[in-house]
Amino acid sequence: MSGWHIKNNVMRTVEILDVKPENPHVKTIFFRDEMCASAEPGQFIMVWIPGVDEIPLSISSIYPDGSSSVTVAEVGEATRALTRMRAGDIIGVRGPFGLGFKVSGERALVVGGGTGMAPLMMLINRLVEGGVDVTVIEGAENSNKLIFLDRLNNLSESMGVEVLFTTEDGSYGFRGLATDLAERVLCNKRFDVIYTCGPERMIRKAYEMAKAYSVDFQASLERYMRCAIGICGSCTIGKYRVCRDGPVFDMERIGEIEEYLGVLKYNESGERIPV
Amino acid sequence: MSGWHIKNNVMRTVEILDVKPENPHVKTIFFRDEMCASAEPGQFIMVWIPGVDEIPLSISSIYPDGSSSVTVAEVGEATRALTRMRAGDIIGVRGPFGLGFKVSGERALVVGGGTGMAPLMMLINRLVEGGVDVTVIEGAENSNKLIFLDRLNNLSESMGVEVLFTTEDGSYGFRGLATDLAERVLCNKRFDVIYTCGPERMIRKAYEMAKAYSVDFQASLERYMRCAIGICGSCTIGKYRVCRDGPVFDMERIGEIEEYLGVLKYNESGERIPV
Amino acid sequence: MDYSALKTHLAGLSMPNPTMLASGILGISAGTLRAVAEAGAGAVVTKSVGLKPNAGYPNPTVIQVECGFLNAVGLPNPGIHKFIEEMGELRDLNVPLIVSVFGFSPEEYAEVASLAAEAGASAIELNLSCPHVKGTGIEIGQNPEMVKLTVRAVKDRVDRPVFAKLTPNVARIVDLAEAAYSAGADAITAINTVRAMAIDVETFRPILANRFGGLSGAAIKPIAVRCVYEIYESVDLPIIGCGGIRDWRDAVEFMLAGASAVQIGSAIALEGLSIFKSICDGIISYLRRKGFRSVSEIVGLAHKK
Amino acid sequence: MDYSALKTHLAGLSMPNPTMLASGILGISAGTLRAVAEAGAGAVVTKSVGLKPNAGYPNPTVIQVECGFLNAVGLPNPGIHKFIEEMGELRDLNVPLIVSVFGFSPEEYAEVASLAAEAGASAIELNLSCPHVKGTGIEIGQNPEMVKLTVRAVKDRVDRPVFAKLTPNVARIVDLAEAAYSAGADAITAINTVRAMAIDVETFRPILANRFGGLSGAAIKPIAVRCVYEIYESVDLPIIGCGGIRDWRDAVEFMLAGASAVQIGSAIALEGLSIFKSICDGIISYLRRKGFRSVSEIVGLAHKK
Ligand SMILES: Cc1cc2nc3c(=O)[nH]c(=O)nc-3n(C[C@H](O)[C@H](O)[C@H](O)COP(=O)(O)OP(=O)(O)OC[C@H]3O[C@@H](n4cnc5c(N)ncnc54)[C@H](O)[C@@H]3O)c2cc1C
Ligand SMILES: Cc1cc2nc3c(=O)[nH]c(=O)nc-3n(C[C@H](O)[C@H](O)[C@H](O)COP(=O)(O)OP(=O)(O)OC[C@H]3O[C@@H](n4cnc5c(N)ncnc54)[C@H](O)[C@@H]3O)c2cc1C
Ligand SMILES: Cc1cc2nc3c(=O)[nH]c(=O)nc-3n(C[C@H](O)[C@H](O)[C@H](O)COP(=O)(O)O)c2cc1C
Ligand SMILES: Cc1cc2nc3c(=O)[nH]c(=O)nc-3n(C[C@H](O)[C@H](O)[C@H](O)COP(=O)(O)O)c2cc1C
Ligand code: FES
Ligand code: FES
Known about the structure:
By secondary structure, chain A is an alpha/beta fold. Chain A contains 8 helices and 17 strands.
């Protein structure tokens, strides 16, 4: 993320091309923007929902025709407004921002929880393209909350990617947490790297496992964001700014912020609150 | 002169590398500046003499080592201060600005009066490099006011350029005005183009001759200048701005401002005064 | 292209389009004023003219900074009496000729304005906002009471539309706008330049001969948009937006903020005189794309959001 | 490299170099304040803290414009009581920790400031200049009388150096500086952001949720340099320059204008935290090349020309 890149990254307004439901609460929104189409897996953009809010969302895919998408779960006012928009509506985008996932190693375990799958989906595509042996674990509360089922099942069939689903209520795939399943997978197979995104406690557990099994580790974190360009200080975790030094952190950097991971964050007012 | 070019043309300060006297009142000042070294013959720069003034001066030469020069006659406060500066002193430069001479035709007659030779000297070098058959007439009041004698005599010897000097008092070369000599030369030889710079009445006469002999014509004009980028309006002649639409004007454009040429200009206050 | 959607009526003036030449840009001679009109400006404003001839400041008077221009030209002008001769050559101009005037007292403004009006000015713009000339900037333009007195003195002597051009160098520009409104101004021009300076690190010197000057260009656009937006909410007068406009998007931004017309100054250095036409073309396409029939429909639209 | 020529003494503080982190940039958490100090800043200023927790405005709160940044964050902060806990982690910071405070009355400023001082602030900076929060900006910071009352109230309660951070959104910033001076301020910080706005032409909406915000970055540098230069001529207090500083040249320009130290804000978005070190390195080379032994020798040099 060079100074030049930031300087020329003013907000653009774009038309929504299409909105595709992933499940009852999650939609994928397609639009065309040149800079977004150059994003690395794990990078995010700030999406302006005019008159409502501006929120960070990961790029979930980029298509050869120059369009990109974000995949958004309805959790509050901004995400509700966004998931209700339709083709032809206008949103603003700035970005892509931050440091994405680094593709490394030959065997990758991808562990995603809920909409944490958004940045991971793009990563999975990139890994498969690069010939990496990929195992994907997607976890959610119940079958209604899983996303990208089609895309992942397709990859499994056509590219031989191992895809495992798990739900807390057992309504689809395995029963239990994504990390429980990950532990089982790790016992049976040697991986070079674990990529993860999702609820921070899940990330924390995955991090502990990575340490235990001596596997390399990269996780995408979330914090409250305003500027996305590293000046407002809203998104800090320890000495790092998630928007600039993350959102993807590697093993070494996570080690430096271990005491906060899954433990503590700052809210909009800058008060420390539990994660 | 593109918008980009103007936008990136803020003032730079440079050190004077050397000061070379041309005659008792004229000095050539050398400095190094990348943008100046890309000037076309006939383009000018604004030279800031810190604490004194900022004035337009033509680029009189560019050297392969990236240095450039201006050649300045002492006529008032700013030029006096500038001609007294020494190597190591600092001046500011912005530019190059304006439209320069267009090299065209196979036989060129160059007519210069006094420091009007400054932009012409660089042009002559360019013409010679381009294999153009060049005849140069330099006129001045007396031998003390001629400049570039060495450089021109060298060109004459080494490159076969025909160089003619004329002084009003006959103290060097022919006696009489440069335009008188030009008339004689034009009677005897066919030229494709006349290039001229110097006192405006001389330019006017040269223009009338060019029309009479049906020779193409380009002249560099002077007007009072402030901004040099076409917004302040100080340098207007008819519908044109000398800093932007000139300083070099071709036959057609001079035709459109004929009524002013050698007749009328605006002073610093914007009052119309005779040239 | 059909430009009829751009027709603009402003304080009694009819303009073919809402773009105008800003004061002090080229407008000192008949030749360039005509050239600007021919290039497509909907109206032209002259350089500010005073009672007596004035040579302005020594150079450097106009310099560039990273995001714009700094100028301290010092209001050079030939004085209204000589300028009237210049105006004589513009009788057949096909767009409104607006004469910008300044003075060192309300009476002087009125004197110059009435001479300009007699000589055929379509309207008068009062330069109440020069940030670097003593006696007319701070003393008059930054003081709502003096703005009121000046506008009133001019309105008493002149039967043409009078525009008050305001300075952003105050805590509340709306106070100035309200003063101008209460004294009968027909329109507000906002904004003039922002007081600023630049120092050269090699020579330790302020670069402008006058040290202080006015900042114009891209740097001040967000300030100018804010001023227009604020004035639109506070007084019921047409506003002419000015400050950093370089393309049709900028022009539209000002109009959404509340400007009925826009003035273009510094950007001419970057884009040349073709800027008037390219802005008009851009606005026309925008209006079509968005389904507006007249440029007047977008004025102030940002206030409804 | 030997940085001893950069040592700066300012209103009783000792700083290893004259660069400081500007308020509102990162300074809300102990972690980033420490990171900035480690990156080479000569002092750090915290985000402005008030008496009570405040969530600020909804997004968009920070956007980019052509030549800088617009922000209307709305002074989010956890309130001084919680912030004191945060400060507890910074006891061993190796550079001065300056706490920026705001309030809605002189008494509130004094209350927050005295709590910050008790908790170990090296100095207090009074944010008298937020251009977009009701009740503390216009009402206090743009009014010399209120500035005087506020500085005095704080000085009465606090035995640490007090900096008055001023707004450029006034007709004469020197009036504010003189008010701060007369009330006993120990230094002046100039400037905060310039009131501005941006409108999106596709949706017709002001982009910032708060509509109005403050302009920072390259756009305002010439305005800030002018303010520093004017204040240097009017009051005998150290000045901390701020506004659009991006490299050593900019920093030196402010110092020549009269700043004893400089604050860096928006440029961190472009250059990252390494900006502090690169500015220091640049100043060191400049001092050597020009034959100065201490950075203090260049302060105000442009006034001698
Ligand atoms: C780097 C990053 C990438 C993200 N990628 C995705 C994604 O691809 N898909 C997706 O559905 N969600 C993603 N999120 C989360 C998403 O930004 C929030 O769900 C959204 O902002 C909620 O807004 P709201 O108004 O609907 O909910 P609210 O009711 O306002 O809040 C719900 C939750 O979202 C958090 N939140 C609200 N505003 C912000 C903000 N400005 N920055 C960060 N968190 C905020 C709140 O703290 C709260 O925890 C990402 C977050 C970050 C930081
Ligand atoms: C495009 C252009 C190129 C020029 N090239 C050269 C050159 O190569 N060598 C050279 O010796 N001279 C050149 N001149 C002329 C030079 O700019 C003036 O001689 C110089 O500005 C005089 O300044 P002064 O203070 O010494 O004299 P003053 O006493 O101030 O004036 C003497 C004369 O110079 C004119 N002049 C003063 N200031 C300016 C100004 N800012 N712009 C234009 N004219 C001015 C005055 O109108 C007067 O006619 C050029 C002028 C122009 C417009
Ligand atoms: C070189 C120059 C000279 C100016 N002279 C005047 C003037 O005489 N009267 C006036 O009202 N404004 C004057 N201005 C201000 C402009 O009219 C305009 O208000 C300002 O430059 C902002 O617009 P811009 O950013 O499009 O240039 C001048 C501006 C410049 C750059
Ligand atoms: C995102 C952001 C938040 C800011 N918050 C504060 C603040 O809380 N208190 C304050 O005094 N100044 C605040 N400022 C103003 C800066 O401290 C500084 O005065 C201004 O940005 C100009 O400097 P710059 O151009 O280097 O950014 C803020 C600026 C920005 C960009
Ligand atoms: S969101 Fe502002 S610093 Fe990260
Ligand atoms: S010198 Fe300003 S327009 Fe030519």
